[in-house]
C-alpha cells in the first residue's frame, strides 16, 4: 500500500462529500486506502459516507475526542508507506497524490510535505508554509507586525512571507489541513500528541520531525482548495482561546527555563489581547449601524424639539429638561428595539423592514403615551415628526453606506446576480434545476464549454475564454461542474480571476452546490434540502421575545397563575431559567434518536406533543412532529402549545 489518506470529520457533511469525490479522482490507478473518522457528527455525515463511499474505512466515534486522537485512531490502522492527514473542507487536484509521492520518493530525507493552498475565493493561504513559534514570532503575530510587513524575514517568520509561494522550500511547520507524512518517520517519532485537542498538533508534529533529523518541505507544484472556517469559525473567541492555549501547551512541552517562561507569558498576553480585539471587532460589527441610527435619532429629536417649540409654541424653552434625559432615550430605545425585532438590521437591507419596524415602534409609543406621568407627555407631533425623520435619515444612511461599498444606489432592490455555469450542456441543465429547486435567485447568463473545441451554438464560449466572459457579462458567480472540469483547471481559474468573483463547485451526482467566499466564515451552500422557518433570524428573535414577554406576564400574574399550574414550584424555577436564556417555553419533543439536521433550540418546557395531546408517541412520530414544527414554524404555534399545555408549565425540563 502506497498511501493512506485520513480525514477527520465533524459536522461538515457536504464539504466531506466533495473532498471524498476529489480524493477518489486523485486516487485512480494508485494503491490508496481512505479512512474517515467521524467525531460524533449529527448532520448525516456517517450515513452519507456509507451510502456514497463504500470503499472508505469509516470509524465512528460516539463523542468528539479531538483532532489529534481521531487521526491517531486511523494512523494505527494505516498500511501505507505514506500517510496524508487531510481536512474535510478541501479539494485536491487530480495529480496531487502522484506528485507528492514522486517528490517524497525522490527525497528520502523528507519527513513531511505541505502543498500550496488557496481559499474558496482563489486567494493564496499564507499558512501553507510556516515557521516555528518563538516569543518574537508570537509578538509579531499577536500585534499585527506580520501583517504590516508580510514579506519581512524579521517580522513575518510565522508565515515565512519572504519565501516565494511558487517555489519549493524547506520549511519548519506543515499545515494541519494537508500533512503528507512518511509512515516510517511516524513510527519513529510517535503519533500526534493527544494533549492538543484541535490546534497546535501540526506544529508539535512538525517540530518532532525536524528534531529527529528529517526535513519538512513546502511543495507548490500542486494545489488544493482549503475552504477554512467549516469546522470552526475563525475570528471567534473560542478560536482565539483554543489556538493560543495550544501554543502554551507547545511551549511547555518543548522549551525550558527563561525562554519557556517568556514564551508562555507572551502567549498569555496574546490570549487577552486577541480576545479583547476579537470582542471589540464583533461588537463594532454588530453595533456600528444601531449606534449610528441612535445618533441620528437623538440629533434629529434635539433639532425637532427646538424647531417645534420655536415655530409652533413660540417659546424655545417650551419643553422641560426631562424631554432630553427621559423622552429622547425612551424613543430611541423603543425604535431601535422595534427595528431589531422586525429584522431591519438583517442583511440584505429592505426598506419595508425599516418602515415596519418604525411603524411598530411608533404605535407602541402611542399606546404607552397615556400611561406616562404628565411631565413626560410632550406633544404627540414630536413623536410623529421624529418617526418620519428617523425613517428618512436611516434610509439615506443605508443608501450612502451601500453606495460607498458597491458604487451603486439600488440599495434594497432584489438584484439578481449574473451567474455562469462551466460544464457540458446536460450537467448545466441539472445545475439549473438544482438552483431552481433551491430557490436561488440568479440571472443565469449561460454555459461555458469545458473544452477548447465545442459547438458555440450551445455555449457562450469555450473555457479558454472564461476571463472574457466574466468581464463582458459582469459575472458575479461561477459554478464549475466537477464532472466536466478538472480540479486543476478550477483552481487555475480561481487564482487567475481573483476574489471579485464568487466560485462554487457542484460535484458529480450531488444535490448540493458548494463554495466559500470568505476564509473566516462558514461556506455558502445551495441545496434542495428542506428550509427550516425556525432557523430564520427574525423567527428566532420573535421566539425569544415571546419567551421573555410570557415570562414577565407570568411573573406579574404569579399569584393567579399558580392556581392553574400542576407544579407551582417548578413554574418558578422554569420562569427564571427561561429569562436567563437556558430554557424556552416551547422546544422540540424529546426523542430517543438524534435531532439530525434540525436547527438547534433551547430545551423546551413544553413541546408540540402538548398541543396534540399525544401521551406516548413512537420515535418516528416524534421526529416527524419535530420536523414539521421547525419547517413551518410560526409564533402562533408557540401560543397554541402554551395555551393547551398551560397546566404543565411547571414540569421538569428533560435535558437528555
Q: What does the main sheet amount to?
A: 9 strands, mixed
CATH topology term of the largest domain: Spore Coat Polysaccharide Biosynthesis Protein SpsA, Chain A
Cα shape: globular
CATH superfamily of the largest domain: Spore Coat Polysaccharide Biosynthesis Protein SpsA, Chain A
Residue fraction in strands = 5-15%
- The CATH class of the largest domain is Alpha Beta
Total number of strands: 18
Task: Work out the helicity level.
Answer: 40-55%
How many helical elements?
Answer: 22
Q: Provide mean pLDDT, rounded.
A: 86
Residue windows where pLDDT falls under 50 for at least 5 positions: 229-233
Distance between the termini: 44 Å
Under the CATH scheme, the architecture of the largest domain is Alpha-Beta Complex
Radius of gyration in whole Å, from Cα?
Answer: 29 Å
> How many domains in all?
4
Q: Which structural class should the secondary elements be placed in?
A: alpha/beta
Quaternary status:
single chain
Please render the helix and strand layout as text:
Blueprint: E1 3-9, H1 13-26, E2 32-39, H2 45-52, E3 57-61, H3 67-75, E4 82-86, E5 90-92, H4 96-106, E6 110-118, H5 135-142, H6 145-148, E7 169-171, E8 178-182, H7 183-189, H8 201-211, E9 215-226, H9 237-254, H10 257-311, H11 322-341, H12 351-369, H13 380-406, E10 417-422, H14 425-437, E11 442-449, E12 461-462, H15 466-472, E13 477-481, H16 487-497, E14 502-506, E15 512-515, E16 524-527, H17 537-556, H18 558-561, H19 568-579, E17 584-586, E18 604-606, H20 608-612, H21 619-631, H22 635-644
Parallel strand pairs: 1-2, 1-4, 2-3, 6-9, 10-11, 10-13, 11-12, 13-14, 17-18
Antiparallel strand pairs: 4-8, 5-9, 6-8, 7-9, 15-16
Helix pairs in contact: 1-2, 5-10, 9-10, 10-11, 10-13, 11-12, 12-13, 17-19
